[in-house]
Write a structure and sequence with these properties.
The chain has about 450 residues and is an alpha/beta fold. It is built from 20 helices and 11 strands. The structure holds iron/sulfur cluster (2 copies). One iron/sulfur cluster binds next to helix 8.
Length: about 450
């Protein structure tokens, strides 16, 4: 007796996926273009994580029966799954289809907005060595062009995942950027930025709250109509009220624990979580008192040793009206990951790496599986990183002297600085180790 599509759908709806798959395949062996069998097999592939198969099967189904109501919703499911898993280039055509079906679907609209190449990003960039042009993609970090300006060239803490601690012997200038230099930099940014209103981050490897003239600097950015963000460990109370009154667009508070006896003292070495907690309450009080609507969010770094403190931190954020985001802690900078891969890590490095949820080498492998194609690195095409002394770094993920561009931001045009980035040898090393911030792409399918 031949299997019917009804039997297959019944098994599918009952969650008997293996049985449903067998039945759909049997139908397709007799009728290779059966749209429902193709579509539903594609949906099974999607939930099983076989994204390439899902795309192929549902694509064939829609080619056969584009208006079949049974297939409505498949484009949305595929588009959102690909988007969530970072495959933005592959997600875009599916999200376009889903948006055409239902323009009011806000989840689809948001995902589609982040899956299109922003207007300021050219689709390709020539390789200065004459090789294949670099392909661009919708950036993951921010759709807007970003300037990361380290107004403070040092930090009050010594987190072992950060070069401030794990590359402390690096001969790197420490100090504060003067307000005059900052004004010149921000004016040059206004003149030559690829977008009229870029995002400005007042941090990279430094603690911006240490700058005594932080409010003035925030004001200079806001006067020029740009968004300004801070990231702080919040182990500083001095200047907090004035910083709040300057009303930056966002303040990120980086945390890795909530208890005095827990992991925080090691992972935010030199910090005191009791001061952070009291400052979080003070921050809420000051925002309300001065009627400031700055978005505050806590970025919680997950380690093997602090997972049980994450929920309590989330609850504290809910109480204070702050956003909460958690992410596995990451070992920085790129140079140190290369040291790790090449067996040059110190005992101190290995101790902190042992606390990470996933070993950096494993992360590299996991990310590597998702990367296909000659894609550019968004840290160079959508971002410029400026050190406290006005010099320019290759990118925000590097720290050491050989990874600097050897130029002052005020002395060269945007185009000249870009050219230096694209001819810098360290990017080749970074790509070779699979550490560049490039795009996730489904692997090419056999013809
Ligand atoms: S608080 Fe931030 S900048 Fe300071 S040492 Fe820790 S990670 Fe580095
Ligand atoms: S390829 Fe590596 S070194 Fe070059 S910009 Fe990207 S992250 Fe930085």
């Amino acid at each position: 007796m031949q299997n019917s599509i009804g039997q297959a759908i019944a098994a599918h709806h009952a969650g008997r996926l293996q049985e449903a798959e067998t039945l759909y395949r049997s139908i397709l062996s007799r009728e290779p273009s059966h749209p429902i069998a193709l579509n539903n097999l594609g949906m099974i592939a999607l939930v099983s994580g076989h994204l390439g198969d899902a795309v192929d099967l549902v694509g064939k189904a829609l080619a056969v029966a584009p208006a079949d109501p049974e297939l409505a919703g498949s484009a949305r499911a595929i588009g959102l799954t690909l988007f969530t898993q970072g495959f933005r280039i592959d997600a875009a055509p599916w999200l376009e289809k889903a948006a055409a079906q239902n323009p009011a679907d806000q989840d689809v609209a948001n995902a589609l907005g982040r899956s299109r190449l922003p207007a300021h990003v050219a689709a390709e960039h020539p390789d200065p060595d004459g090789g294949t042009p670099w392909l661009r993609y919708p950036p993951y970090e921010s759709p807007n062009y970003t300037y990361s300006i380290d107004i403070v060239g040092t930090c009050n803490l010594r987190c072992p995942t950060c070069p401030v601690a794990n590359m402390r012997d690096e001969p790197r200038a420490k100090g504060l950027m003067s307000v005059d230099m900052f004004r010149d930099i921000i004016d040059k940014i206004r003149r030559e930025s690829p977008v009229p209103s870029p995002d400005v981050w007042l941090f990279n490897w430094g603690e911006p709250m240490l700058h005594p003239e932080l409010p003035k600097i925030v004001g200079l950015v806001k006067e020029r109509g740009m968004t300004v963000s801070l990231s702080t460990n919040l182990n500083i109370r001095r200047g907090l009220e004035e910083a709040v009154k300057s009303a930056p667009d966002s303040i990120k508070v980086s945390m890795s624990g909530l208890s005095h006896t827990g992991t925080y003292a090691q992972t935010h070495a030199g910090g005191d979580i009791r001061l952070v907690k009291s400052n979080l309450y003070l921050l809420r009080y000051l925002l309300d008192r001065h009627r400031v609507s700055t978005r505050v969010w806590v970025g919680f770094h997950l380690y093997k040793t602090n997972l049980e403190e994450a929920a309590a931190t989330r609850a504290l954020c809910a109480e204070l009206g702050f956003d909460y985001h958690e992410n596995p802690a990451v070992f920085h900078p790129v140079e140190k990951v290369i040291d790790l891969v090449e067996g040059r890590a110190t005992a101190e490095d290995l101790a902190i790496v042992d606390r990470l949820l996933t070993h950096p080498v494993q992360i590299r492998e996991q990310v590597g599986i998702k990367r296909h194609g000659h894609y550019d690195c968004e840290l160079r095409f959508n971002m410029t990183t400026i050190n406290h002394d006005g010099t320019v770094a290759l990118c925000c993920a590097t720290y050491s002297a050989p990874t600097q561009l050897g130029v002052n931001f005020l002395d060269e045009s945007h185009g000249q600085i870009e050219a230096r980035k694209y001819s810098h040898d360290f990017c080749k090393t970074c790509y070779r180790y699979g550490l560049a911030y490039s795009a996730a792409k489904l692997p090419p399918r056999p013809a």
